[in-house]
């Protein structure tokens, strides 16, 4: 019987994380293969709206061997520029990449290593790096099934531009990074927007003469490992702060949007039996106040850093609300409000059903320490706060990849010679 092909390392996922590991393995002469279900950088090419841009400055794009080298390090690359940067990274790495090959099963073998079943057959691997990210299944609540069929519904992963949606008001559900930016995109396009506000925090784009990211970098925030964060692993559950790099970068202020006509509601909680009346939780004022406290709290930490360092910087200040909700609105008639479309911006859930290994918690999230699991030779990379704030971003994945490559080399050296060469 013909034995399946054996690879020293199998990498699952051909995004920036998987190719970063490939870059390191190639440099160390480790034989490996990268399986990508779709095409390299699939998410970047298919799940970003037309006006998407980075929310962190270009200088933070530090993929291994491929730092940002353009003319605007403190600017924010737009979608097409991001894709060009990533395509150049792919060419730089020149990974042993198999596109259009879905990994259907990874399972540890009793004798060591892993069985890997793909859409093109089976192989074995000495080690496996899961680089498929954690944003797999778009979250859409079950109440969406009961909404009137004439209302167009899209998830943030499907949203492209305002012209994609039919005439009429747009309900955007969720005010995290995607929801806030999509609401802004629609607002700037002249669409009437109703925004169901969640608990996402916000931060300033610029403060005291510099981008807030620059200040936080100097303060060492981006070097802080998850184990030293005040929330520890709980920080992985935090919603990202909303801010934008659009038009050179600016704050996103939902209160200002409201003063310009955007209708703000609280968290969407249900749909009445009439299939027309949406229900919202009270607490919009508290949500906005909480986001502003985070905004002012980050700025206050920058104030303390400037004072302690004896730096000369323009004066700071405290954000004062430009709008307050006059009342709590708990219901909305879709028909009376003229809602013609809904954009769901409430995130994704992970889907690792193909990985048959005891490395998950009750919520389906991997249990790992800086990407290393309790199963020898099985690793994760590219997840938010895997190790630091930058782990799920262009800024920190190179360091994580370097760490996993070192772990892979250590694991290989500890294996019996006949298994390592299988």
TrEMBL record:
<dbReference type="Pfam" id="PF13738">
    <property type="entry name" value="Pyr_redox_3"/>
</dbReference>
<protein>
    <submittedName>
        <fullName>MSMEG_0569 family flavin-dependent oxidoreductase</fullName>
    </submittedName>
</protein>
<dbReference type="InterPro" id="IPR024000">
    <property type="entry name" value="CHP04046_FMN-dependent"/>
</dbReference>
<dbReference type="InterPro" id="IPR036188">
    <property type="entry name" value="FAD/NAD-bd_sf"/>
</dbReference>
<dbReference type="InterPro" id="IPR050982">
    <property type="entry name" value="Auxin_biosynth/cation_transpt"/>
</dbReference>
<keyword id="KW-0560">Oxidoreductase</keyword>
